[in-house]
Amino acid sequence: xxxxxxxxxxxxxxxxxxxxxxxxxxxxxxxxxxxxxxxxxxxxxxxxxxxxxxxxxxxxxxxxxxxxxxxxxxxxxxxxxxxxxxxxxxxxxxxxxxxxxxxxxxxxxxxxxxxxxxxxxxxxxxxxxxxxxxxxxxxxxxxxxxxxxxxxxxxxxxxxxxxxxxxxxxxxxxxxxxxxxxxxxxxxxxxxxxxxxxxxxxxx
Amino acid sequence: xxxxxxxxxxxxxxxxxxxxxxxxxxxxxxxxxxxxxxxxxxxxxxxxxxxxxxxxxxxxxxxxxxxxxxxxxxxxxxxxxxxxxxxxxxxxxxxxxxxxxxxxxxxxxxxxxxxxxxxxxxxxxxxxxxxxxxxxxxxxxxxxxxxxxxxxxxxxxxxxxxxxxxxxxxxxxxxxxxxxxxxxxxxxxxxxxxxxxxxxxxxxxxxxxxxxxxxxxxxxxxxxxxxxxxxxxxxxxxxxxxxxxxxxxxxxxxxxxxxxxxxxxxxxxxxxxxxxxxxxxxxxxxxxxxxxxxxxxxxxxxxxxxxxxxxxxxxxxxxxxxxxxxxxxxxxxxxxxxxxxxxxxxxxxxxxxxxxxxxxxxxxxxxxxxxxxxxxxxxxxxxxxxxxxxxxxxxxxxxxxxxxxxxxxxxxxxxxxxxxxxxxxxxxxxxxxxxxxxxxxxxxxxxxxxxxxxxxxxxxxxxxxxxxxxxxxxxxxxxxxxxxxxxxxxxxxxxxxxxxxxxxxxxxxxxxxxxxxxxxxxxxxxxxxxxxxxxxxxxxxxxxx
Lengths: 204, 545
Prior knowledge:
Chain A is of the alpha+beta class. Chain A has 7 helices and 6 strands; from the N terminus they run E-E-H-E-E-H-H-H-H-E-E-H-H. Chain B contains 10 helices and 26 strands. Chain B has helices spanning about 20-35, 120, 240-245, 270-275, 320-325, 350-365, 415-430, 430-465, 465-490, 495-525; strands at about 40-45, 60, 65-75, 80-90, 100-105, 110, 115, 125-130, 140, 155-160, 175, 180-190, 195-205, 215-220, 225, 230-235, 245-250, 265-270, 285-290, 300-305, 310-315, 335-340, 370-375, 380-390, 400, 405. The interface of A and B includes residues 75 and 194 of A.
């Protein structure tokens, strides 16, 4: 049983100040922002950014994220290599944090957004609650995806004993930061209302 | 209401947002291609052990620049070594030649130096020494010890061979007049020749000092010589005292030879004094066979030609003689000698050795013979002497054990025995019997002569015994007294004597007058006709005025 939407009453919500205005207006009478019924090209835009993030995710994992220069000998560590190293050293909690923040969170976010895009355009009907849950997870884990870049940034700033031990960010740090930022933008450009619009149109 | 439906366009037109993933993919593909293009070659190096080598950490360096990284360290199939797989950078490709060398730089503490201390903290790395070969190579065998000299270092590589390892080690210095000009790079042992081989390197520009007449000797330690002139301590540099070293130089009297190229081989003498005794490289060997006692003939005994040393005795070839089966019949004992043209100051070259050999062989035809001479009467040391002899029989050239045999003549005690024997033979051969017979007949003749002499003497006695002969002295006495009387009649106090005296005085006077006359006659020859000059009258002085 489809619920009644604002769009059905010819009303449009402002993206900025959330004021409901008549759909015939082009700008918000309160804040002057352009009014759209839905975010324009939401699925396509999100999909493009997700592909970009996926491409960036490859070098982020293959290239060294951190270069440890110990007594003149540079050691490159990738994200997964660092996790394995931490497990070998017995620091399993830290390894878990790094693994979750650096591998599981960005990967999960990417997959979740891909799934949402799929829901917004697939011909298969799906429960509204499931869609909402998926979106919530995306919102939740996206907040933590910068942890890895943050760890590297702190280490670089803290450990800089010239000649003895120097930690430098590797090429993967840039790629990883790119992954995180692009997925944030992708999540932002996704309009979750399209899911329900689409599902209801399927149910009709 | 239907016109208020959201306008959801699907797949229509080109949305500029797609530029973002396209750029990402293009950049990604470009990076992959760029990396692949710049990827250097992969090489393998085999070592004995993987000590301090770690995959992903150990670098390959050249002039302290990283040019590669060890990717993998595995055991060889036979488990007898390890193989290091390394990824080199693109610009390192020209360095990978067939004679490129690799070795692991780790901390090493040697007697002469401590190296690689930096690797204690930074970890070991693999050092590359670029080769100069033409062929490129990807599989290498690593060195276990670092080479002491880079492959392209200017200088000359030599091989020194010695029968004793002495106190030399790799890294020991080579000095020329006390100045360090090179080093020993490695030591190997040739089990076939039973010789120690040293790889030596002389740095440029000192490689010019090494010529074919250069001699090498061990200068390790201190040489102390005590003699009548005092105690002499001979040392080289402090380094060579502590660690050992090799010195080289030329022997006085040997002309400088030609410059040598890498790979030349030299003998390493144990000491300078040993070298001074035996400084020559080229020699020719001969065999001399003696049928007399060789007691006192030692290895190293001099071989002389008319008192000038031209070589030495190498050894007495007893073993060869026994082996050849000639020992039974009292055959002569062969002695191996060598002649060195360098001793004569002519130069120490192979050509001169050949010339000397042919000279010696030609000389044999002209009477050149070897003989054993006593060098020291007390100790009985012998030496071999060569000289030309007129009264020798020609000999056919022969060989023993591959050496030319030079003919000999017996001398010394052996010759003395022979001479005494010859003398006795001559005495034996004298015709004593006939000599005695003739002497006997001579004596008989002499007897007859003596008998007739006795008869003559007897008849003489008879004459003397006659009375007239006995009276003869009285007659003589009487005659003598008569003579005396006659003489006494002429005495001055007798009458006849006085008149004789007067006559003599008269004669004297007459003679004096005659003398005066002859004087006047000689002064004025016309005085016989004219009277002598009358002096002019004296004119008084007053009348003159």
